[in-house]
UniProtKB/TrEMBL annotation:
GO biological process, one term: termination of RNA polymerase I transcription
Pfam entry (one): Myb_DNA-bind_6
Protein name, entry field: TTF1 factor
Myb-like domain ranges (all copies): 124-169, 173-255
PROSITE patterns from the UniProt entry: MYB_LIKE
Organism: Erithacus rubecula (European robin)
Length: 349
């Protein structure tokens, strides 16, 4: 297919496709476009974000069926073929002959690449190996000094997943402060975020602005742009004394305070009303999984706050009120909160 036509057809399903490279477009045209069109006929939209339990089960089913079909004896060999150099040629041949790309993505309305990465995370035996020992942390620093940010190489040396070693290095690469944020740290964070936001705003994106003052100190953009898709590892480097997750949490905390003008939304009478509203709005979504919830819309149940704030309040609700919540599905948790917790909270209010 002509590259421009492929890009144009893919744009119907993936709005940001114009930012993708030509090689990515070629791969998506081959692996995804036919699937996307088939899903459209069924009235199913292409999805992004967190995978649902149903999708995870489908991936597991697809992998198990492909192993059964080809005789490959483990998911690790299938998804991490380079770890088995003696079997590499045979596995590659079997994957080609039996259409691995099509089989692994069957029944899942997402780009193939995202499904593949999800499968690798689910089936990587080096994932979920618990806390890093002090010895492992020192090894990680040494390997990074030798190999830079080649996380694939380092993950093999550490017998940990790529994501795990990259995130852990972010924490251990320098002296991290775990105490309360100082005024100096907070100001560094504010300056770092401001610098990043200024760079992201370009003339061609002017339609996304509410206003852009010529002053070097005034910058006004849509609320969502303040906390979505920010480069946290870059911001972490600019702050210096905190790792990226701390920076993200602190920024969301600052936004919550600013957007609500410092109101205590989750204490006293306001806290009860917030819990009640949040339970009702969540129950009305009839969502089967957290990834199906539009958390940005739900922020209105609490106030003009970031989605991370709403998600953290839901987490506190289920931990505080739902017995054995880890064993329940998302919908079962919502049912319990609505049927058991909500009447108690309303009576208390």
């Amino acid at each position: 297919m002509d590259l421009d036509i492929a890009r144009q057809e893919l744009e119907e399903f993936i709005p940001h496709v114009k930012n993708l490279s030509n090689s990515s477009i070629k791969k998506m045209a081959g692996r995804d476009l036919t699937r996307f069109k088939a899903f459209k006929k069924q009235g199913i939209a292409v999805k992004f974000g967190r995978f649902t339990q149903k999708e995870n089960k489908q991936i597991q089913k697809n992998v198990e069926e492909f192993l059964s079909l080809t005789g490959i004896d483990s998911a690790e060999k299938l998804l991490f073929t380079w770890r088995y150099p003696d079997d590499k040629d045979t596995i590659h041949r079997l994957k080609t002959e039996h259409h691995f790309c099509e089989k692994i993505s069957e029944g899942i309305p997402r780009p193939w690449r995202l499904i593949y990465y999800r499968a690798r995370k689910m089936f990587d035996p080096n994932n979920y190996k618990g806390r890093y020992s002090n010895e492992e942390k020192e090894k990680l620093k040494k390997y990074q000094a030798l190999h830079g940010n080649n996380w694939k190489k380092i993950s093999e040396l550490m017998s940990r997943s790529n994501l795990s070693v990259a995130m852990k290095f972010s924490e251990v690469k320098s002296a991290i402060n775990y105490g309360p944020w100082t005024k100096e740290e907070t100001q560094k964070l504010m300056n770092a975020v401001k610098e990043v936001l200024r760079r992201k705003i370009k003339p061609e994106n002017a339609n996304s602005l509410l206003s852009l003052e010529e002053s070097e100190t005034e910058l006004c953009i849509e609320r969502e742009k303040l906390y979505q898709a920010l480069p946290w590892t870059e911001i972490e480097t600019k702050v210096g004394s905190r790792y990226w997750r701390q920076c993200k949490q602190k920024w969301n905390s600052i936004l919550t305070s600013k957007l609500t003008r410092g109101q205590e939304l989750y204490k006293g009478i306001n806290g009860l009303r917030t819990k009640i509203n949040l339970i009702k709005r969540l129950y009305e979504t009839r969502a089967e999984d957290a990834s199906e919830v539009n958390w940005d819309e739900l922020s209105n149940a609490i106030g003009d706050v970031p989605r991370a704030y709403v998600q953290s309040k839901f987490y506190k609700l289920k931990v505080s009120f739902v017995p054995l919540w880890k064993r329940k599905t998302f919908s079962e948790i919502l049912d319990y909160l609505y049927e058991e917790t909500l009447p108690e909270l309303e009576e208390k209010l």
